[in-house]
Amino acid sequence: MQRQNIKQPNLDLQKSLEQNPPNYETGITFIKRIRVQRNKCTWPLTQEFRTQGRNRNNTKVLTDSYEVNGFLYNKPVQVVEVDPENKDRFIGISGYNRNAAQKALKWDVAIYDIVEYKTPRDRLVSGYTLNHHIPADPTIEVDIKKGISTAITEGIITNSDVDVKALIVEIAADKTNSQKKSIFDSYRRNNSAFENLESFGSVRANKLATELNIPYQGDKNYANTGLHGYVKEASVHKQLMYDGLETWLREDEPIYVTGYVTYPTPQHLNATRLSEKKKINKLNNFIYEIAAKVTGMHVDEIKKKGKTPFIYNGFLPQVISADPTNGGLPVETGRVDYDGTPML
Hints:
The chain is α/β, with parallel strands linked by helices. The chain folds into two domains: 1-119, Conserved hypothetical protein from pyrococcus furiosus pfu- 392566-001, ParB domain (Alpha-Beta Complex), CATH 3.90.1530.10; 202-330, no CATH class. It is built from twelve helices and ten strands. The strands form three sheets. Strands 1-5-3-4-2 form a five-stranded mixed beta sheet. A three-stranded parallel beta sheet has the order 6-7-8, with helices on both faces. The chain has a two-stranded antiparallel sheet with strand order 9-10.
């Protein structure tokens, strides 16, 4: 069997239509399948539906596939829309890596489906779901979270949990239910559902600790604070006990613990903070009881020695609604007690 000329492929448009007829979801209007010069289509360097620098490059895989298998007529073709600035040109929607592989092989022409979208939401969803087939490079978690942020910013959906979850069901249709839940939880960790509250994970929490001169990760920020400590999300205490006690034994200095609430709500923020504050005392009492058990001393005698391993150090600021009594600055700007009272 004679192999297709990869450098100058003789693509058969009719064969493509027969083996892979256009089939699009509601909201996407198929206009026409075309065989056209590749230079008539623009593929922006900054991909609209991908997070740059976080995806693996699938171009080599596709290049090898083209060289070995030629053009696979039974697979979905690249998808484009008419360039609103120039009706004689097109803008790529799906098929970035295929375009890069074709460029590497010096293809002059390609086959595209021209489509139109009924709503901005239809366009955004298709940018993710059009890759839900083999051998396309699937969108990953950071891409999907980018899509959520875009949808909220552009007013396609609200920031409610219901809307965010519904969008994830659409744009992450190729993921399992547990993967979808993980994506939602990860998004909410750094993006609160409430305008007056800020959410963040450990990376941003440690960055904020640096800005506020709060000790974290044991000796990080020690040069500025003169203290050892950790910044921990609510209910994470097992790791704190090990890391904190290790640092305490090594440095012979108390460990300052600053907290933050991972999924804050206006109704439960202060109650969650108060519960966490009490857990620091429980953690110390637990250690005193262990020491008493090991030494045979009464726990009160252990406490009298004044060797308190963990010191409650308040919470990172998370209430960001404007304070009219303070020139419109956020209600919380620095370290606070469980009830939001500033801790200087």
